[in-house]
Amino acid sequence: MVLEAICIMRGIKSERKTDQNGKQFEDFWGPSMKMLGDLKFLEGLKEYDKDNIPPQVMKRIREKFIKNPDFDPAVIRNVSTACEGLCKWVKAMEVYDRVIRIVEPKKAKLNEAEGELQAQMDKLNEKRAQLQRVTDKLQALNDEYAAMNKKKKDLEENIALCSQKLERAEKLIDGLSGEKQRWSVGATTLSDKLHNIFGDVLIS
């Protein structure tokens, strides 16, 4: 029984035989002996592709063996300790298949959710990059505004200084305009004295 289950799990076909009543049946004893004679038998069980067990195989295993009360490691141990381990392997594969059928859709949903999350994160990062560009541009404008304000302040200070200088210059010009007439009279007097200097010297 255990070896038949192993043959079904590994996809090994049975031999068609006829019983005493002339009825045909599936016999796994011959194929089982050939399977046990394979030096890589245990290695094949270790490397068994448990993630891709055909559904029809698991259906046969569940209907014919898992529901069978004799297909129990504790019962089989009384007959063969080697078959006990093989029975545990079949049961473990059945449990794994049941669990993977439940877990696989959840893993698919998880992968889908992670994909959506990654897409949203990509959009978020794109928006963050856009925000950073806007922030950098705003900072540049703020820096330019601050520079222009400083330039404006410097110009206002220069205007105030120039206004003070202009006011002082106007006062100085106004002060000097009063001296203009006196200087003009003095210049005329000096010119006359210069014209008469030779005569004045000669008289002297």
Question: Which descriptors would you attach to this protein?
Answer:
204 residues; mainly alpha; two-stranded antiparallel sheet; 6 helices; 2 strands; rod-shaped
The overall pLDDT, averaged over residues, is 90
Shape: rod-shaped
Strand order of the largest sheet: 1-2
Strand percent estimate:
under 5%
Number of helices: 6
Report how far apart the termini are: 167 Å
Number of distinct beta strands = 2
Based on CA atoms alone, the radius of gyration comes out at 57 Å
**Low-pLDDT regions:** none
Largest sheet: 2 strands, antiparallel
Description:
The protein has helices at about 1-10, 30-35, 40-45, 55-65, 75, 80-204, and strands at about 15-20, 25. By secondary structure, it is mainly alpha-helical. It has a two-stranded antiparallel ribbon with strand order 1-2. The longest helix is centred in the last third of the chain and has 123 residues, at about 80-204. The radius of gyration is 57 Å and the shape is rod-shaped. Keywords: Coiled coil.
